[in-house]
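Q: Predict the assembly, please.
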Amino acid sequence: MGSFDRHVDLVPSGRDGTDEYRPGDPACTSALHGLTTASPRQAALERLIDGYRSFRDNFFSRNRDTFARLAQGQAPEIMMISCCDSRVEPAIIFETGPGEIFAVRNVANLVPPLTPDGSAHGTIAAIEFAVCMLQVGHIVVLGHSCCGGVRALLSAHEGTAIGRWLQTAASARSAAVGASCSGARATLQRVCEYEVIRTSLVNIREFPFVRERTRLGRLSLHGWHFDIETGELQALDPEADEFVTLS
Ligand SMILES: [Zn+2]
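A: Predicted assembly structure:
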């Protein structure tokens, strides 16, 4: 593999099949510092390189005109804010091609509120760019089932980067706990996933440049939820304030 013989392997080893975040767990941290030469994890990287070669020789080769046009600039109509989760890939779920979705992914598809101190934030900067420069017509917040970020939100992770990030959605946790009558974990998880989407939409609406364009009808906001196991896609009905399945 030439220059790829040595690489920093970012895939945690010793995983138990869950995506639960356990700060301090050697299985979650040791792999971040190791260099490997040959292993199943190396095979994962080689899989990427093989995939790139296939892309280059097939998809890219067949769509050279499209990529030549895209090299001149982008004009996507859609901005999508979705989770980092490896199981929720917008381009696959919505069968979109390059240039169609301006995408931001972060833990639990959160949009923080604009802060008075004006501190730097990547997600807010991306929204500002998409709305003010690209002038997208739609912003979609895409949540999903089995979200590890939401699961962490429902647990205690004080003192960690994830814990601080998820404080953005503290109100969503409170609303979910209040709304979840049965107390069943799966129900609370799903309700909280919905509430996180609602929280992100509320925060986006408060951005001055968003408020102006939505008032003029030039920008629409949407909250969607994807079920990994069933493939079901739900959309937040703003009138009923509930998620309904898209047929
Ligand atoms: Zn997630």
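Residues 204 and 210 are 7 Å apart (CA to CA). Residues 1-62 form one domain.
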